[in-house]
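Notes to self after the call with IL:
- keep both proteins in one doc
- input above output, always
- annotate only the second one for now

Protein 1:
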Amino acid sequence: MGTSFTLNFKEIDSNAHALVGGKCASLGDMTQAGVAVPPGFAVTTDAYDAVLAANNLQEEIERPLRSLDMDDVDAVEKVATAIGDAIRNAQIPDDVSNSILQDYRALGSDVPVAVRSSATAEDLPDASFAGQQDTYLWVVGEEEMLTKVRDCWASLFTSRAIIYRAQNNIPSDDVKISVAVQKMVNARAAGVAMTLDPATGDRTKVVIDASFGLGETVVSGTVTPDNFRVEKVLLEVLERKISPKHMELVADPAARQAVERDIEPERQTLSCLTDKEVLAVAALAKSLEKLKKCPQDIEWAFDADAPDGENLFALQSRPETVWSQKAKETNKPKTYGTGMTGLASALFTPLPKT
């Protein structure tokens, strides 16, 4: 494949991971499989490389990282700030910006979008890099969108991301970044779903956390979400815990941004989902686990502007890492001397299969 500065989600599959990162590769896979995903495109790692090359930034980034003491928090923060500023102030070559703007305009005139980082080291089955780079919601207008794309590129070198990669023995120059630009969902309710029970690893369950408004309040822990446990095979709600929800993150079209809003007292203790909606989320999660062939951690939303039955969207699906890693360690044959690996192999207990 030649140089591609942008790719529509319809053009992306898992084979494009090195070009679009984990998040965009997943969005492309789901789009091609016919899953309801908000339309969008990836600003590829080719675009990121072109910006670094045009501004002679590669050595400026790598030089201070080579001798950086990761235990010196102040030094790491100083280097991170300098690198981030250099990327934000870099000129975007015309061919790169034109490609980005063309795909943005194809989504609609000044359409609100989410601008999400998609690094090549994230959303892998054996690593949990979720949240290490930045996401921006309800971004409107060409200039603001390009600014947030720059911010996503720069977030590859926050102090948190630099230290996290060092702790996981991943050289910074081995990691590149793509950016997802995706039409916003005007979420009435949203959250996350796990295709196993995160407390026990039980793969016969789907566990859903949900709240009113955009799902970032659930992901960030800003609210205590409603919680639902669903039997995966029969799709039956086994347990529901409805929590008081005092605020929601919603769109403010006039301000052209997402804002926090207090929830009316009479709505705070209501379930944000009906049982029918809970089962729809569980069915979506189950289908994505089948598509991805491993337990999934899924972000989803119900769009207030779409008709019932067509209003559930998958926003992200990434491999679950905690219990999957435990299973991998458990399944690893233990050595007790020559000829004992068969006994060791018989001692482990794999995750139950659905």
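Protein 2 (the one to annotate):
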Amino acid sequence: MADSGLVLVDKPTGWTSHDVVARVRRLAGTRRVGHAGTLDPMATGVLVVGVERATKLLGHLALADKAYLATMRLGWATITDDSEGEPLGGASAEAVTEAVTEATVRTGLTALTGEIDQVPSAVSAVKVDGRRAYARVRAGQAVDLAPRRVLVSRLDLLALRRDEPGLVDLDVVVECTSGTYVRALARDLGAALGVGGHLTALRRTRVGPFAVDDCVTLAELEEQAELAGRAGAGHPGVVSVPLDRAVTGGFVRRDVTADQARLLAHGGKLPAVGIGGTYGVFGPDGRVVALVREERGSARPLVVLRPA
């Protein structure tokens, strides 16, 4: 059986997150594989993939903050808010030159920083009456999505380029909570400046504590799996962050006694110790037992990672 843990993949452009999961399933030799936080096919960078018991972590890791490097193009909007969609219209070259200056861009980015109400991109995975928004748009239906409260903790301009007449490309760094659409930030900046905007490049550089420098490419995963097979080790060679280390890296840690670990592994509750949010509980052997959350004076298991 494959080891339990995380595979930190540097997703290539053109691949869906599901494509990556399917490849890891084949290399790991197990169906129990999932990912934390979808990346669009055009995007690259950190995709956190869970294998075996680590799939139980993914719903919690998906709530972590994320960081991106992005390129926004001002001059016209698209139906998908990125370069893969049909153009919706924009502004004249003269209007772009007049409206888009470094000062107006910085002011616009500042207005999109902090807690904001953001309307998700129409072509998104948000469900409308039980059906994904992107499926409705592709079927020719109009989609009206409600705004969502998100936190953009950083939105800084790195470079402003005028490589083509009537177009301005902005390289920006984004740090935000899960559920924030960087495509929508490009759309809203373009709308605020009156010239239209969309995203042309996106690279996720961090998910919670996991950075792109910690990732492996799919080619490297293939090579690892092949080497493991030659050595007679079977499939376990794909996991890059073992389960215990994944919890240590992603959550606050609490150590408990053997009796407490046994109780928790059976689904029991422990006394609260005043730790806020979800955290990991480890037994005296240093292995993770569960993710827990405290409420009403007790620490209740959300996910048992090491059954009794």
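Annotation: The two ends are 19 Å apart (CA to CA). The longest strand covers residues 148-161.
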